[in-house]
Amino acid sequence: METTAKTGKVFKGVVVKSAMKDTVTVSVERYVQHPKYKKYLRRSKKYLVHNPGNTLQVGDTVTIRETRPISKRKRFVVAQ
User: Fold this and answer.
1) CA distance 35 to 68
2) Where are the chain's structural domains?
3) Cα(78)–Cα(36) distance, rounded to whole angstroms?
4) pTM for this entry
5) Any long-range contacts for 73-80 (C-beta under 8 Å, 24+ apart)?
6) How far, in Å, CA of 49 to CA of 62, rounded?
7) CA angle, 71 as apex, 57 and 4 as ends, to 5°?
8) How confident is the prediction along the chain (80 residues), in pLDDT tens digits per residue?
9) Under CATH, what is the fold of the domain 10-78?
10) What is the DSSP string of the chain?
11) Which terminus of the chain is more exposed, N or C, with fewer CB under 10 A?
């Protein structure tokens, strides 16, 4: 019997806040086409990401991946 590991979501984003212990806030942007006018819009969402050792600074570009819940709002860890 083999077990296959599920791969979660992977995003690229920019660190916008690093004031918390072992946590950074990462803003992820995506392009969405307006349904009626067909113009492309930028939409962003912020995620709380586990950063062990506080190694990241504001402005760093990072890759984050989904993992098990670490706290109430943290479900991502730094992949790179």
Assistant:
1) 34
2) 10-78
3) 37
4) 0.86
5) 73/48, 74/23, 74/48, 74/49, 74/50, 75/47, 76/11, 76/26, 76/47, 76/48, 76/49, 76/50, 77/49, 77/50, 78/24, 78/49, 78/50, 78/51, 79/10
6) 10
7) 95
8) 667 777 789 999 999 999 999 999 999 999 999 999 999 999 999 999 999 999 999 999 999 999 999 999 999 999 98
9) OB fold (Dihydrolipoamide Acetyltransferase, E2P) (2.40.50)
10) ----PPP--EEEEEEEEEEETTEEEEEEEEEEE-TTT--EEEEEEEEEEE-TT----TT-EEEEEE-S--SSSEEEEE--
11) N
Q: Are 58 and 18 in contact (CB under 8 A)?
A: yes
Dihedral class, residue 45 (left if φ above 0, else alpha if ψ from -120 to 50, else beta): beta
Length of the chain: 80
